[in-house]
Design a protein that fits this description.
The structure is a homodimer of 488-residue chains. The longest helix of chain A is centred in the N-terminal third of the chain and has 30 residues, at 24-53. The first copy, chain A, contains 14 helices and 19 strands. In chain A, helix 2 (24-53) packs antiparallel against helix 3 (57-80) and helix 2 (24-53) runs antiparallel to helix 4. Chain A folds into 2 domains: 2-227 and 436-483, Aldehyde Dehydrogenase, Chain A, domain 1 (3-Layer(aba) Sandwich); 233-411, Aldehyde Dehydrogenase, Chain A, domain 2 (3-Layer(aba) Sandwich), CATH 3.40.309.10. With 488 residues, chain A is an alpha/beta fold. Chain A has a 7-stranded mixed beta sheet with strand order 11-13-14-9-8-15-16. A 5-stranded mixed beta sheet of chain A has the order 17-2-1-18-19, with no helix packed on it. Helices cover 40% and strands 18% of the residues of chain A. At the A-B interface, strand 1, strand 2, helix 7, helix 13 and helix 14 of A face strand 1, strand 2, helix 7, helix 13 and helix 14 of B.
């Protein structure tokens, strides 16, 4: 196995020598071609993914569209070219006491990247997902360790990517796929001296383990593990008074979306006690009772969900609001519980994510308790605020302070559903991710795989085109402190 | 001591609540005021620094100017405001199958930052240096652990910064200074849960230790250690044929600048054997013999230099070119040695930095050996190329590949002297730094202390001004994929 991995990493390093200097149009062609190949798989892909995940085929129609949109977004980003953040400071020969040199900097790719996909999104967050796409866009070769929960889907999509690499005349080492259920393979890859970075989506234990392996290396490398969170939602009174039925519907749908297997699943709802909250709680329980139960991604996840729910039901102060008896024990039905703020604050285990269609309502005695609960959270992918304009104005300072621990702050909507755009942050302070300074979704995800290099007094012919006076790509650059698309 | 540190960190956290939302003009005023206070210290500061470092007073006149230039550069950067990288994607209510939400992101400060300054630049890279300046600019409070090698200089400059903080009406916790020679204090600070990031300039062992402490925390935090390197210089034949005397002068000066105590000191010179190289070598030895010897920063550094030189003189194949007998054993005189490429490649210890006025010339049999030597280096702050246009054109591919391990590539100049500008990269892959994705000098140094946050469907009054439709600051933003300074 070691020999095989060595050969794979060597191929990736060799491919890097070619790929890192490939121009944006070549990478755009590659990403567009991958999208085309994935679309070409059509029903075969949806069916395979559905069989391996217990999720409906229509879900994969949507996920394929999202994945291909993402591929094309990054294709357009690198074809346009300004993402390299070119900065030019021209020389000043007459400066005293020393001449000012000509300095030009831009971002360059790091090297081979290893990607570990997520089980819950076998397309958008796995083999052909955001990590692979953003790394290829940056000019880094990718080695995917296929997820053992969807090996056939992973292989199908990997073959599509390899076909696109080949069709674009790029070296095979630009993209490689390893299928293994061995934990050691992951460790060997992360600790391989030829690997320059790692992307992971999954559990806290898995993501943190990979991070620690990378820190034990002689040369530490960045590991971007997106590990999920409980995504607290704060519900203010007037919003519940005005629109309890709408919010109950929205959150029942958000809690059960994808059988609760979204990393942005709203696992905790927080509010000050009121009759409006009681009303909302009843309506939410009713809405949950109307949802169908489905099988989870695989037996291990189902078992963890069942165990997690059973355990929490016995925690001090937990009151069951909705917990249907499911006749088919293979199906996961939603569970809603309630707890007082005091019991919640005393029990840190209630802050841990239960992966599945589960949520806790935390009832606070007053605004001070709400504040204390809200500020007690460790790093989160999202925080959501449900409130009327009056609610939000009244609590402006409190809400503002929640950006301390979240990557995204959602107003009057569900946290589930992560838009793929230039403004996306799908990240957040630890333990939501291992590095809250980056996003794993949206165009800035490319910034995880690069570093800046500065050329000082370089002859023009040695400069990357992005830094040449003529600006042949017409990209945006910062020239002597001012943004411009012009040549020098 | 623990109680004292807890109180200091608590003050920093409290100050963060105010400081993180302070606007750019307030931070500019602070940074300008610090510069004014430092300038106001005048000769008193230069004299103190000179006494504590054995470096001449005129050096601190220059270093004060550099430090104040740096403070004002960051002041201007944050007053202008575009550095927050605002990105706006407006909503599309009609998008199918789901509406597109309004998403707006920008960079926000991380929290209290601990700074460990360098002994070799008690102003520009220490208490009032680039780490402190860039962190304050970003909106992060700073706790400096003063360097034990220049305690009085550190205290003087810390008092100047505190006076500026106070004059600007900001909380005292925005800047705090701890003077302690205890190693434990550093560890406690880095592992304190209230600390969000660390800046360090110094040795590999010190920088890596702090990095490891930070990784052992329950919540890992970024540590930016700039640890120096040997800064290889490749000399091509025609350049030596044409200008051997000029290059000998330039490198004699670069090797001995600040008694060789620059992290960009050219510790290794590489060339293919030629009579031109022999000529250059003799001239360089001559130039070194004409330089005066000076005392190093402190006795510990002097002892390490002496030991390092003594050790390397006994390594296999090392030939002494210049090694004066210094009558005063407290003075450090320059040392130049020579070794064959083969002996160099066989002995990894020759790649380690000897901090002081020392350099090795590596003589290669041919171009292939030169390539092998050049590519054998671990991460470096800089690589320098000395060559005529013909030399560079002939070796274009080889030179291009050197960006694999360097943060800055210098053409026909000395690596010593790091320009403070928007295009600066003072960084490089490990072991030059613990994180080659960032720079510790130049305006992008601010990016070490921030993370992105996204506001989704936020009411306008909850958005930071940088993200509001009206764009009251007139900053550059990326709006629906296009750069613009306009309001929405």
């Amino acid at each position: 196995m070691i020999n095989e991995i060595n050969a794979i990493v060597q191929d990736a390093q060799d491919a890097f020598e070619v790929f890192r200097n490939s121009d944006g149009l070549i990478r755009k062609n590659l990403l567009y071609k991958i999208a085309e190949e994935l679309e070409g798989l059509g029903e075969k892909l949806w069916k395979t993914a559905s069989e391996e995940t217990n999720l409906p085929m229509v879900r994969f129609q949507g996920e394929t569209a999202r994945t291909c949109f993402q591929l094309r977004l990054f294709g357009d980003l690198v074809a346009e070219g300004s993402w390299v953040q070119a900065v030019i400071e021209t020389a000043d020969e007459d400066r005293k006491p020393l001449r000012k040199p000509d300095m030009r900097k831009m971002l360059v790719p790091l090297g081979p990247i290893v990607v570990f996909g997520a089980s819950n999104f076998p397309l958008a967050y796995s083999t052909p997902g955001g990590d692979t796409t953003s790394a290829l866009a940056s000019g880094c070769p990718v080695i995917v360790k296929g997820h053992p929960a969807h090996p056939r889907t992973s292989q199908l999509t990997a073959d599509a990517i390899s076909a696109a690499v080949s069709a674009c005349g790029l070296p095979e080492g630009v993209f490689q796929h390893i299928m293994s259920s061995s934990f050691d393979v992951g460790k060997i890859l992360v600790q391989h001296p030829g690997v320059s970075g790692v992307g992971f989506t999954g559990s806290l234990s898995g993501g943190k383990a990979l991070y620690d392996y990378a820190q034990q290396r002689e040369v530490p490398i960045p590991v971007f593990s997106e590990m999920g969170s409980v995504n607290p939602v704060v519900l203010f009174k007037n919003a519940l008074l005005d629109q309890a039925p709408e919010w109950a519907k929205t959150f029942a749908s958000s809690i059960t979306m994808g059988v609760g297997q979204f990393c942005t699943n709203p696992g905790i709802l927080i509010s000050v006690k009121s009759s409006a909250l009681n009303h909302f709680t009843s309506l939410l329980a009713l809405e949950l009772s109307l949802t169908k139960s489905y099988k989870m991604l695989h037996q291990g996840i189902h078992d963890n969900y069942t165990k997690g729910v059973e355990k929490i039901l016995f925690e001090k102060g937990i009151e069951t609001i909705y917990h249907a008896h499911e006749s088919d024990e293979n199906l996961a039905s939603p569970v809603l519980v309630r707890v007082s703020a005091q019991d919640f604050l005393r029990n840190p285990s209630l802050r841990e994510e239960i992966f599945g269609p589960f949520s806790i309502i935390i009832v606070c005695e007053n605004q001070d308790e709400l504040k204390e609960v809200w500020q007690s959270f460790p790093g989160q992918l999202t925080t959501t605020v449900i409130g009327t304009e009056e609610d939000i104005r009244t609590n402006q300072e409190l809400i503002e302070s929640c950006c301390r621990f979240s990557g995204r702050i959602v107003f009057n909507g569900a946290p589930t559903g992560v838009e793929v755009s230039h403004a996306t942050v799908h990240g957040g302070p630890f333990p939501a991710t291992t590095d809250g300074r980056f996003t794993s979704v949206g165009s800035d995800a490319i910034l995880r795989w690069v570093r800046p290099v500065c050329w000082q007094d370089s002859p023009s012919f040695m400069l990357p085109v992005s830094l040449q006076n003529e600006n042949p790509l017409g990209i945006w650059r910062k020239i002597n402190g001012h943004f411009s698309q012009s040549p020098l």
